[in-house]
Design a protein that fits this description.
This protein is an alpha+beta fold. About 45% of the residues lie in helices and about 20% in strands. The strands form nine sheets. The chain has a five-stranded antiparallel sheet. The protein has a five-stranded antiparallel sheet with strand order 12-11-15-14-13, sandwiched between helices.
Length: about 700
C-alpha cells in the first residue's frame, strides 16, 4: 500500500521553529501523538520534534518556554506519499515524516499504520462476507477435523436448521459425498458430483483451503441444478439458433459479409467466395480499411454504413475484376450503437458491362442526334435573344444589322408579342452607339398630361409637386444613345405636332423652362397599330408618320413563321429548365400542336404557355394532355376513319380535316422530291411531315 493511504489516519502535527517546548508537549497530550514536523514560514520541512525531545529537555533542566527548534532532530529520513509503506516499516522506524516537494504533509506513527491496516482489513472482510452471504449458491466450510466452521445464509436457509446448531457438526455426516480427508491429504480438487439435499438436486464442487502452503480445511460450493439446466437449455437453444442461422446464411445465393462495429471481419458465407472469386480465408479478424488499402476492394460499404449510421448501397469492384452491388445494413444494440454491419452482395459484372455498353450507345446516339439537330438547325441562330429560324426573319435581322450602321429613324411594326423590342435592341447593340444608353419608353403607359414632362423633363417650380432642381426627361437620359419609343401610335393627337418639331429640330425645352437644349439621339419607334388607317381617320399626323417611317421594318406574326415555333419553344424550355432546376422536355405531339395553333399572342403567348405547362406538368415529359384545350382542341390526334373525298354527306369536321391532310401529304409525296421541299410547300416543319406521314401510313413510292 502507498504511504498516501496511511496519511488519512496520521496526525497533521506541524510546529514552527519558534514554538515552545511546553506548547509542543501540550499538543502531544491533546492529539495523543508522539511526534510532529517542524517547518519554516513557507511550510518547508526542517526536522522532527518528538516526546523524547520533551523528556530530554526536562531531564537537562532546559527552559520549557524556549524555542523547540534547538532540540529537534534535523537529519532524519523522509518519505514521499507515493512510496510503498513497506519501506519505512522495514526500516523499523517508530515514526517517519512524509514530505512532498520539500513541504511537510504529515508524520506517520506505528499506531497510524496499525489503525489503517485494521480498517482496511475490516473493510475487505466485510466486502468478502457480503459477497459470500449474498450468493445464491450454498457455501459450507470445515476445518481439518471435518467439523463445520462456516455456512453462508443460503446454506442455512436450505438446510432448514438453526445455523448455530450446525456449527461444529461433522460435514461428512451432513454431506457424505464430501471426502474431506482425501482433499486435505492430496490438495486436489475432486470431480464435480451431484447430491440431493432435502430432495433437491445440487451440483457440488469441493476445494481445499490454504494458508502459508498448509491446508487448513475445505470449502464446498453447491449450485442448484435448476439454474444450470436453465443455462443448458438456453445454450442448447442458442446452438440450435446458430445452426439455423448458419444454414440460412450458407444457403443464401447472395454473398453475405458480416463485420463488427469497428469494421473487423467476423463472418463470410460460401456464396460470397463463389461470387467474388476471392480467397477470403485470410480476411477473418482483419479491418475493412486494411482490405481496401491492400486493393481487395475499390471501396467498402461497411465503412460507409459506420460513417452514415444507416443502410447504404454501392457499386464495388474487387481485385478479381468483379463488379458487385453491395448493400450494407447496420445492426444496433439497445444503446443505439452499431454492433454489426451485414453486407449482401450480388454479381452485376455482366449487367454493369451491359449498362456501360448501353450508356456508350446512348452517348453515341445523343452525339448523332446533336449532329443531326445541328444539321437541321444550321440556319437557326439566336441574335441578342431573338431566335431566328426562317428566311423572313433572317432577312429582317440582316436588314436591322445593316440599319445599325446609320442613324436613320426606324419604324418597327407588327402584332403585339412579335418581338419588336428585341429587334430594336439588335439595332442598338450593333450600332456605334452600343456603349451609350438604350432607353425604352412605352408611350401608352404614360398619362397624356405627364407625357411632355416625362419625355422632355421639367424645371424646378414648373408645377405643383415638381422636384427641387427639376428632372431630366427621357431625351436627356438617352443623349448620345438610342431612344426606343414603343406604342408610338398611342401619342395624343394634340401632342404629335410638338413631338414632330422636336424630331425635326433635334432640340427641346423642359416644361417650365425657356432654354432650348440640343440632343443627339437615335430614334426607333414601334407600334402594333395600323398608322396608315389612323392617318386616314385623322388620328395620326401624316407628317409625323413620314418622319418616323424613314426606314420601316415589319415583323411577321408567329403564325406566318411556323418553322420557327419548335425552335422558339425549345429555347424557352431550355431557359425555364435552367431557371427552375428542371429537366423537362416536349413530346413530339406537343410540337405538332404548337405548329398548328394560330398564336394570336405571338411569341409572348408561346413563352407564357411554355412556362405554364412546365410548372403545371407533373411528369418529366410534357405531352398533349398537359396543354390547355384552347390550344390543342378536344380529343386526341388519332387515325380514326378517314375522309373518302366525297362531300355528298355530312361528317365530323375533324374526320374531314384528317382526310384532307392525308390526301395533301399523299399528293406531296408523289409529286415533290424531298421532305424539306414538302415542308416548304405545305408550310410545316420537316419533322412534322415525317410524323404525319407515319401517322397515315404514307410511304415514298
Amino acid at each position: 500500500m502507498k504511504i498516501r493511504k496511511f496519511l488519512e489516519n496520521s496526525n497533521k502535527c506541524l510546529f514552527s521553529y519558534e514554538d515552545t517546548i511546553r506548547a509542543a508537549a501540550a499538543v502531544f497530550a491533546e492529539q495523543k501523538t508522539d511526534a510532529g514536523c517542524v517547518v519554516d514560514q513557507s511550510g518547508q520541512f526542517l526536522g522532527v520534534f518528538t516526546k523524547d525531545h520533551v523528556c530530554a529537555a526536562i531531564s537537562t533542566g532546559a527552559d520549557l518556554d524556549g524555542p523547540l527548534g534547538g532540540h529537534m532532530s534535523r537529519n532524519v529520513k523522509t518519505f514521499h506519499p507515493d512510496e510503498d509503506i513497506a519501506d519505512p516499516i522495514g526500516m523499523r522506524c517508530s515514526c517517519f515524516p512524509v514530505v512532498e516537494s520539500g513541504r511537510a504533509v504529515g508524520i506517520i506513527g506505528v499506531q497510524d499504520v496499525a489503525k489503517t491496516y485494521h480498517d482496511h482489513y475490516k473493510m475487505t472482510r466485510n466486502i468478502i462476507d457480503a459477497i459470500i452471504q449474498s450468493s445464491r449458491n450454498l457455501i459450507i466450510a470445515a476445518g481439518p477435523d471435518g467439523r463445520i466452521n462456516f455456512m453462508n445464509r443460503s446454506a442455512k436457509d436450505v438446510l432448514e436448521a438453526n445455523g448455530e446448531m450446525l456449527y461444529g457438526s461433522s460435514i461428512h455426516r451432513l454431506i457424505p459425498e464430501i471426502n474431506l480427508p482425501e482433499i486435505i491429504e492430496t490438495g486436489k480438487v475432486p470431480p464435480l458430483c451431484k447430491v440431493s439435499i432435502n430432495k433437491h438436486p445440487y451440483f457440488i464442487r469441493s476445494y481445499p483451503m490454504w494458508i502459508h502452503d498448509k491446508i487448513i480445511g475445505a470449502v464446498a460450493i453447491f449450485q442448484d441444478t435448476a439454474d444450470l439446466e436453465s443455462i443448458v437449455d438456453e445454450l442448447g437453444a442458442v446452438k440450435e439458433l446458430n445452426k439455423d442461422l448458419d444454414a440460412i446464411i450458407e444457403s443464401s445465393s447472395d454473398g453475405i459479409f458480416v463485420c463488427d462495429g469497428d469494421a473487423n471481419v467476423l463472418r463470410i458465407n460460401r456464396a460470397y467466395d463463389e461470387i467474388t472469386g476471392l480467397d477470403t480465408s485470410g480476411f477473418y479478424g482483419k479491418n475493412m480499411k486494411k482490405l481496401v488499402k491492400d486493393g481487395f476492394f475499390s471501396q467498402s460499404v461497411t465503412l460507409l454504413v459506420l460513417e452514415k449510421k444507416q443502410a447504404r448501397s454501392i457499386i464495388q469492384k474487387t481485385s478479381t475484376g468483379k463488379s458487385l452491388l453491395a448493400t450494407g445494413r447496420p445492426v444496433f444494440d439497445e444503446k443505439g450503437r452499431i454492433v454489426r454491419v451485414v453486407t449482401s452482395v450480388r454479381d452485376i459484372t455482366e449487367l454493369y458491362e451491359l449498362q456501360n455498353q448501353l450508356a456508350e450507345t446512348q452517348k453515341m446516339t445523343e452525339q448523332y442526334r446533336r449532329e443531326l439537330d445541328s444539321y437541321k438547325l444550321r440556319d437557326v441562330k439566336n441574335v441578342d435573344g431573338l431566335v431566328v429560324g426562317s428566311e423572313k426573319m433572317h432577312e429582317l435581322v440582316d436588314t436591322a444589322i445593316r440599319l445599325a450602321g446609320v442613324d436613320s429613324t426606324v419604324l418597327i411594326t407588327g402584332e403585339s408579342g412579335t418581338g419588336k423590342d428585341l429587334v430594336a435592341g439588335i439595332i442598338h447593340t450593333h450600332s456605334l452607339r452600343k456603349n451609350q444608353p438604350f432607353i425604352r419608353v412605352n408611350c401608352s403607359a404614360i398619362p397624356p398630361n405627364l407625357l411632355e414632362s416625362e419625355l422632355f423633363g421639367y424645371e424646378e417650380g414648373a408645377f405643383t409637386g415638381a422636384k427641387k432642381g427639376g428632372k431630366p426627361g427621357y431625351f436627356e437620359m438617352a443623349d448620345g444613345g438610342t431612344l426606343f419609343l414603343d406604342e408610338i401610335g398611342d401619342l395624343p393627337y394634340d401632342f404629335q405636332a410638338k413631338f414632330l418639331r422636336v424630331l425635326q429640330e433635334c432640340e427641346f425645352n423642359r416644361v417650365g423652362g425657356a432654354e432650348f437644349r440640343k440632343f443627339d439621339v437615335r430614334i426607333i419607334a414601334a407600334t402594333n397599330r395600323d398608322l396608315l388607317e389612323m392617318m386616314q381617320s385623322g388620328n395620326f399626323r401624316e407628317d409625323l408618320y413620314y418622319r418616323l417611317s424613314v426606314v420601316p421594318l415589319n415583323i411577321p406574326p408567329l403564325r406566318q413563321r411556323a418553322g420557327e415555333i419548335k425552335f422558339l419553344a425549345a429555347s424557352f424550355l431550355k431557359q425555364f429548365n435552367s431557371s427552375y432546376g428542371m429537366e423537362k422536355r416536349f413530346s413530339p405531339d406537343v410540337v405538332d400542336v404548337f405548329e398548328r395553333y394560330r398564336w394570336p399572342g405571338n411569341i409572348r403567348e408561346l413563352r407564357n404557355l411554355v412556362e405554364r405547362v412546365m410548372v403545371m406538368s407533373p411528369d418529366e415529359v410534357i405531352t398533349r394532355k398537359d396543354l390547355p384545350a384552347s390550344v390543342c382542341g378536344t380529343g386526341p390526334l388519332d387515325g380514326g376513319s378517314q375522309w373518302s373525298g366525297s362531300l355528298s354527306e355530312l361528317m365530323p369536321l375533324k374526320q374531314a380535316t384528317q382526310g384532307v391532310e392525308k390526301q395533301l401529304l399523299q399528293q406531296a409525296y408523289e409529286t415533290l422530291g424531298t421532305t424539306r421541299e414538302i415542308a416548304r410547300v405545305l408550310g410545316i416543319s420537316a419533322p412534322s411531315v415525317v410524323r404525319k406521314a407515319a401517322k397515315y401510313g404514307i410511304k415514298r413510292t
